[in-house]
## 1
Amino acid sequence: MADTPEAASSSKNPLVTILLIVNIIAMGAIGFMQYRFMQLEAKRPDLTALLKEENTVSSSPEAEGEAKKEELIKKDNLLPLEAMTVNLASGDGPRRHAMIEAVLKLSDDAKSAEFEARKPQIRDTIISIINTKRPEDLLKKEGKQFLKEEIKASINSFLVDGAVEDIFYISFTVN
């Protein structure tokens, strides 16, 4: 008789069964979404393959401009960056910013196609690093030198071919 009340109470309460079914459906949906995501990622082209493909593209007006930039890189191994204005970290004081224009000195094995393709990533890295700096850090000579080393290390961490050997500031203003 002791088994009869427990069996009767579990069969009257379908909540456990419903939760089990919902859990199985949710796990199936998650598994399907992961499968679809992995299929999309497999179809996505690799960055190194894109860079190699870009090197083999025939001449066009855009390629001529690219050739001039590549000539500058090959001649002096320099890559100029556009000027950027970056907000600085500040406490309770007024918002301050830095205006920076720089040139990257590249290693001899650097490929201009990779640097051109990664220019947005390079700019983002520089902006992110400078956003963490206080004005007092950047006004000192040692602070600017440390900033150069930090930027070089960050950029070199994601480059495939070549490396940044040095950074030259063309203009550096803190307001």
## 2
Amino acid sequence: MNVSRRVWQMPDFVSAVSSTLSTIGDLLTFSGGESLPGIMSAISGEVYPLEIGGYKFPFGALMQINGEKNIVVTDIPDAKNSRKEIISFQDYEINITGVLAYKNNTVLINELENLIALFDGASLDITSPYARKFGIRKILIQSFDPVIKQGWQSCLWYTLTGLSDNDIDHRQQVRNNRMDALRRLIGV
């Protein structure tokens, strides 16, 4: 007995709706470098806001934080190892990159003036959950690199580079917290 099985195929309209929803999800997920918040992050407000000196970065921005320690390495004669001593922690270097894209150049120029004001300013407050994890509350912007590309009307790519500039008391508190964690780890 020859029984043919009918393979169920998704109707065209269901496929179209699925494709449309997928496209909308992609646009929402990747617009401006931000992702859709989860329920808990929406409640806590920890999505990815970035604000420096009262200026909220539109379209999100990418942030990279680099840290470095000053370590003195002393060779031990007749040994396979060396002694390492942490002398100090340097300020964090913070790189912020992003793009401003608007319908007209007037709005773009206004936003550019806001970025220039950040560069011209002294030490500024920084609000970012990512920076907060490193104990960074202030930033001093060292360099500003705006780029306008030919053929990209009303778009500006930018990079801001700065150093963490926390108050001395806060730096000492962060270092003490690290040392306390290290002491707990080694059982001292």
